[in-house]
Amino acid sequence: MKKVNLFTAVIFSLAIAAPLAMISTNATAAGEKYILVSHAPDSDSWWNTVKNGIELAGKQMGVTVEYRNPPTGDLADMARIIQQAAASNPNGIITTLSDYDVLSGPIRDAVDRGINVIIMNSGTPEQAREVGALMYVGQPEYDAGHAAGLRAKGDGVGSFLCVNHYISSPSSTQRCQGFADGLGVELGSQMIDSGQDPSEIKNKVLAYLSANKNTDAVLTLGPTSADPTIAALKENGMAGDLYFGTFDLGTEIVKGIKAGIINWGIDQQPFLQAYLPVIVLTNYDRYGVLPGNNINSGPGFVTKDGLTLVEKYAGEYR
Amino acid sequence: MSDATQTPPSEDERVKEMSAFRKALIRPELGSICGVILVFFFFFLTARDSGMFSPSGVMNWSIVSAQFIIIAVGACLLMIAGEFDLSVGSMIGFSGMSIALLSVSFGWPVWLAICVTFVLCMAIGALNGWLVIKTGLPSFIVTLAFLFILRGLTIFAAIATTRKTIIGGVKDAAEGDWLAPIFGGKVLTGLFQWMGDHGWIETFTRGTRLGQPVVEGIPMLMVWALVLVIFGHWLLTKTKFGNWIFAAGGDPQAARYVGVPVNRVKITMFMFTAFCACIFATAQVMEFGSAGADRGLLKEFEAIISVVIGGALLTGGYGSVIGAALGAIVFGVVQQGLFFAGVESSLFRVFLGVILLLAVILNTYIRRMITGER
Prior knowledge:
heterodimer; A: alpha/beta; Rossmann fold; 2 domains; six-stranded parallel sheet; six-stranded mixed sheet; 12 helices; elongated; B: two-stranded antiparallel sheet
């Protein structure tokens, strides 16, 4: 009896001794602590740039930074993470606001406890003000989609396919909606729920394009949907022929732009969305200085011209 | 032989003698009791200064644990009855969406939307059970099908009626409703305000809620969790129906021979699992004021993990509700505690996997001790 209990105690403590090593490395940076909470599931590679952004800012400013996200992308879990972040008493929280209903309560609670909050990436400047955040750093999604739609319309596009790999996030749908409004068409079945799996996305795009032969353009919402779409277009011979625009950048997307498969990528510069809030919060905490307005990190259209720096840092800082 | 007549009647030769110490130790809960102690011990050492044991920190992991408990109780009883339900997570998304659609988009009163949703969910649970019984297929497959069916229906229903996948505004619709506070309200708010006034717990330092305590009260979610654990434990250990559950899971054929209505027990347990999922979803929708098509992803596995940590057997016929609740606490504390301890978020699942594995190994040892098998 005793023996087994001892045995289990040993394996349990072995298993939990492992994180100790990591905690000690995390705790080396003295001073302020900032936590970034995102809505992205683990599988979304785009957020790596955000992680690199806060890490660099933390190193440069000499502050502790932590990145947290709900593993499955469940926004109710994200609300718990924000509550948890607030309970650990950091100097500031940087968070996305992808669903106002779910997240506004926990964010407002954090603000009321005296924690400075900056909204990044998702949400709108108005919502950021309503929850009591210091500012909003990001790219207004609908406007970005709208600008892209107008650009595509100027290039002679009349119909499109929107590959939505994150249909449960309202901001993804807003991008498609903005694009449709920019083109001046109704958004309906041309927005497909592609899921997150690369081969599923590829085959759904192939199926849609073979069923709707008169589609002029395809719009993807990030590397998760863009990479498989590139593969799909290469397979059915439409690469370079079909008008292809995408949100966000990544290694494959940059290659695609270079090869002429993708006409343009909209860079919202996630690096800045993560990097700038840490800089702003640290300076605010240390010296009380604060920029007087929201910061727009995008949209910027990346085309074939001037790709060298983008190419070098795609997926890391771009 | 003449001595036999002198033995007191209370000693029955058919009952094996067992020391009180051994009796106290060999329970399905033993593994999870050790787990709870170890987990708290560990986080007390590593995350003591991180706010994990401040009132708001305690509330944070308690709520998460309570959520797991609610679905674990259902999953536990069903597992003891020998079946699985993999559609729990999708059921959470489905019932949340059903409440939001009925109340916000169709304008029904919230209490009616909640009642209809409960009926709907339990009907689907019954359908799950009926299909398993009638087809004789493993419940693993049947409920896996419903995992996809319900998730797909949820996304379709949301998009088809509102063109959105997240439906908000439930909070406004639930204003003044009599049933909504039973799921989304908080109790003992006066006590917490009093503790806040006396400076025993932190209060908000700015904003509209200045001076109010950071922990407002005990959410109804936790009350539900407690009620379900007590009910489940009572049902399983103190009633005839509880014995039927064990019998149906242990050896259904033998149970049928002695007159246990195995089919009815199993279908009822499927309905109970759906009922628990529906409570989870209703409390979530009422707390956050919105329903999303992706709510509850992977929750079926989290429920099963909690139950397994709690010492139940995957093959049925053995387990305890208290154990499942303790397993859910281990799971919830570890999940939130890793954040408090500042563990790199990408390693989070590695630890969950390790804990699961350790719990199962531990429980297997304990079961071998009990049954004496090698």
